[in-house]
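Our collaborator T.R. sent over the components below with a one-line note: 'Predict the complex.' Nothing else. No constraints on interfaces, no templates requested, no preferences about which chain binds where. So this is a plain run: every listed entity goes in together, and whatever single assembly comes back becomes the starting point for the next discussion.
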Amino acid sequence: MIARRGPARRPRVPVAVLGATGAVGQTFVRLLADHPWFELRELAASERSAGRPYGEATRWLEGTLPADTATSTVVACDPGHVRSPIVFSALDSSVAGEIEGAFARAGHMVLSNARNFRMDADVPLVIPEVNGDHLALLATQRAMRGWSGGIVTNANCAATVAALALAPLHERFRIKQLFLVTMQAVSGAGYPGVPSLDILGNVIPWIKDEEPKLETELCKLLGALESDTVRMAPIAISAQTNRVPVEHGHMVCMSVKLEERVSVEQARAAYAGWTGRQDLSRLPTAPRPPVILRNDDDRPQPRRDVDTGRGMAVVVGRLREDPILDLRLVALGHNTVRGAAGGSILNAELLHERGELPLP
Amino acid sequence: MIARRGPARRPRVPVAVLGATGAVGQTFVRLLADHPWFELRELAASERSAGRPYGEATRWLEGTLPADTATSTVVACDPGHVRSPIVFSALDSSVAGEIEGAFARAGHMVLSNARNFRMDADVPLVIPEVNGDHLALLATQRAMRGWSGGIVTNANCAATVAALALAPLHERFRIKQLFLVTMQAVSGAGYPGVPSLDILGNVIPWIKDEEPKLETELCKLLGALESDTVRMAPIAISAQTNRVPVEHGHMVCMSVKLEERVSVEQARAAYAGWTGRQDLSRLPTAPRPPVILRNDDDRPQPRRDVDTGRGMAVVVGRLREDPILDLRLVALGHNTVRGAAGGSILNAELLHERGELPLP
Amino acid sequence: MIARRGPARRPRVPVAVLGATGAVGQTFVRLLADHPWFELRELAASERSAGRPYGEATRWLEGTLPADTATSTVVACDPGHVRSPIVFSALDSSVAGEIEGAFARAGHMVLSNARNFRMDADVPLVIPEVNGDHLALLATQRAMRGWSGGIVTNANCAATVAALALAPLHERFRIKQLFLVTMQAVSGAGYPGVPSLDILGNVIPWIKDEEPKLETELCKLLGALESDTVRMAPIAISAQTNRVPVEHGHMVCMSVKLEERVSVEQARAAYAGWTGRQDLSRLPTAPRPPVILRNDDDRPQPRRDVDTGRGMAVVVGRLREDPILDLRLVALGHNTVRGAAGGSILNAELLHERGELPLP
Amino acid sequence: MIARRGPARRPRVPVAVLGATGAVGQTFVRLLADHPWFELRELAASERSAGRPYGEATRWLEGTLPADTATSTVVACDPGHVRSPIVFSALDSSVAGEIEGAFARAGHMVLSNARNFRMDADVPLVIPEVNGDHLALLATQRAMRGWSGGIVTNANCAATVAALALAPLHERFRIKQLFLVTMQAVSGAGYPGVPSLDILGNVIPWIKDEEPKLETELCKLLGALESDTVRMAPIAISAQTNRVPVEHGHMVCMSVKLEERVSVEQARAAYAGWTGRQDLSRLPTAPRPPVILRNDDDRPQPRRDVDTGRGMAVVVGRLREDPILDLRLVALGHNTVRGAAGGSILNAELLHERGELPLP
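Returned assembly:
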């Protein structure tokens, strides 16, 4: 599944997945199955699943579960039972706060998808291409919390799509105002998630707690690192979120006001060749390019474009003038890959390349 | 299908449908089947269909086609072949300009769904609850064009939903800026319309020619009649339109800036008891109320709310503060009923009640 | 919702719904809202819901919940708390056995949708048009069990559709072999039921425990009442069941072998004018006719035909020769109306007309 | 897209696609993009498209169209304009008869998806694993028709799925009777194909001309080559076909009677290790194994299993006793890959390996 790039084979780093039986947990298992740098050694889940073979404890949702993973015994989400120095967390926010903290305290590097720590001042909320430099917060975090490990979070799935789509514009022109309306896939709600009776042939104009996440996380993602803190980007944001009957892929319609008027051509130029401020060319799962600007009228579309860059790229389209602000555009990204498990893995790759991962 | 209200039975006015074999034409046939004021006498369509029984010339899309309608012979869309004084037009815009003009010239009152005449200065673009007074343009139209009949248009389906949802706010608080993002049902594209391979489990972020219609028609709908002309409402509008895998019902997410700051409570109050400036209580198909404000988090939804008021009411939900402008809200309406055939019929009812219909 | 036919207004019989908060329970509430013979007095559900207003205890799935029903207090599913002589049961089979038995023992007439008692020799499994005479088993039931009340069941939703579709053929020609392949709507699995991630754009070739129900219940439904017992119809049945992404309406493709070869014309004649062996013309919700045979190639279809006869009729189509057996046909019925709540209500109407309901 | 196996790189054989702009034509283009043995040189289509760049003449439906293919000029479907010795035909049956014949006469080897020649006695109808030996009919064909080229057809998409699923049983136990009910994806109808208004949330119990194809083609596919002719397999077949709202993947529910009673275990054994009677291990796109028997209750499913073996394998499940005949089972295959373009390509690979392809 995962392309192999990067340094010549060396011993792989053992990693664990917390919350391995859920939907995002499964995506971690799938994406890590064949990773050149990381070796999936431990699958951790709730007490109910611990001690059982993974293949029985989970209802595997897609493709074929590798045989050795299926027979692997699930362990409890407890630092006493998990030895891997790196843990990917797909835990629900109702338990993530306590468990992820315990792992960080015990020396593990936690790469978390939960919202619990995202907005803490000393916790990096990172998309490598957008704000990989924010990882520097880890030093403060360890100093302040006395942890030997650490926590790095990735953003809400829709916020991730929007941030990648906007970063080329923001870097060059500074975004001041942003209206977003999302159309989000059902896989964003996990499994069993959205009942089919609620969504077949329907749209639900509401996703619990989603709009505030978009309105705050984007300001941190697009914020600037200043010494040991992140200054929030001063963007006024209005978000409206909808669930649509799509399997994978969040769409975001945006209207954007920039610091000064720019033409559509200038905006297009900002996307050309953009790869972010970090050099990620050696990271195995970094998509090239990370953001693809399409010129056809009717793209992006979730079913046709969601797997672009193996689900790690964001596709932008319909870039045009906005009659009130400056620009309008539509963005699409894979919510469970780039917006969740794949995003965490890319964060771990960046840490690894910089030598910031704990040794086994 | 249609509730009976209004004056005691009197002879019904004969009416015809132009473009009767298409999707909107069929909706006309269904809605007129049992109308207390109008009697569907003539079904007109292209040369290809003329002379054939209606039941053979059309691929009937829903419910049961009444037997006498099925055997009725289709006539050509030519004023020489149609005698009904009132003609409802479901013609495609590629032919509507010429044919509708010919009918108006020949003394028929044309109620049109096509875009051709909508923005002409002397042509009423009418939603009875919103701007029924604009029908006064008919006098100018006749004077200027020398027609004995006339043309009254109804708006684009998504514009109709938005206009009804916004009218209570605009009347009281004056809208200055408006961002709309639509999620539109496949029936809006007619039949065969959107191929299933394009839309199953997908979203298409583009509908040909739709955004400019929204951005202009809304200003006319919400504009003010001044002597013999309509002054466009001075609203800056940004529209983005999407197709979603929903059968019927257009959803519109909106952010609104008003002339001055108003609270959500004041906005709610504007909806309470609102029935529009016209008294429509005697019109058989006028919904009561025309706009329903819901307070539950997750409504409106197309599948659950589209038939509210027999498809003639618009449902508004999620009315709340906007972080940048003043208010955010979501609206839903039935695109082929209120947004097309049903809207035309309501316009005809209003004309009839005012005695402005030609006599047979 | 329910048509009014039958005797002139008389005091309505008080009725209760057990399991009122679930999907089928809600359908009962909706169908009983305006019933001419029955008055919905009590809503019973699990201990978790008892004591709460119904509008809070349930997640209402469709249309508008009547205000007085929303504020009605839910009671426990216990004969000590329910006074209505008639109880409609939408209980899950995991609890239905015990609770329904307790109600029958306490003198209530229970109209059950659960599978628990369906195949008991002394329990009527009834579709009025097909085997209304089986209600005579009630006398045996009371004698054997010493109950002052009784239990009448209706069949599995797909079995109901098939039985109605086949009854005209079976009555005249005797069915000997039957192959069924179903395509069943998601509402058949209740709420939350089928996760959208499992069924969007997908088919699931398996419904737990469904095939044995079809293979046994059909033999009882089409069986003959002989003195105080039902002789199973000697039909060899092979059933395969599938879940499809449809909201309401179960489709059943069938191949049928009859006692002797009959032509398609003879088969068509068996459907003409068929209304079943009982005279149901005075029952308020009995559809006329109960089975509709269509001749167009591509019908029935769930979305277009499911509401035929207000969801109480079954639509049959594609009746044609079978290359191996005698006939092939496709049938469609509304699984939560005719196949569940509406079926129970029709059974109660038949009992009521015959004076077999307990008095309040 | 296509795995590389087979002999070491040698000059690739030039191939053309007829009907390259349609849905199946596009699948050919995608599957041939990177083929180790064949080089896609010419794209042919109707007069309307000839002379235009392929990227403009087609509405590309999935993924990214390679740049050099997009700029390639479409030629007319005329042997005078096409030089490649091998032509893959995705032509519609309305024109395939004449055009394919002309190409064969002119010395091209035609691999056809159209139904026109399939049942001709001297035309091979081939699935390599099932009846690759039927290619021997080519000699007769050339002799009888005086063609220097030839025509090899592949079967109807649903017939292909059924034939592969049944071949292991038929080879060992001889099938005598077969009931099939299909649930077919919308891509089987091409593009634009099925209108979304017809199929969203719906099932259509009819596909034009499909049932006779299943009932005849299966007998030829499973028939035995005897000297220079194919003796039809003596199987009585009853087929019912349905369209369901699924993008890709035809499901087939089957009940099977064998020459003598066999147990489910014996049937399972017939699948174990089955790879067909031909050795296809050197063919680049031959899936290994071609038929996968799953034991989980709820598989196969189109969305989860359709890409098994890169869309070239058929997945069988729910193998169990039939209460009337011997066995029941469900099969799934990719209708536009194995059931169309991919099937033709595999046929061409088999011909190539045997040295039966004309030289350039």
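Summary for T.R.: The interface with chain B takes residues 23, 61, 186-187, 191-201, 245-247 of chain D (CB under 8 Å).
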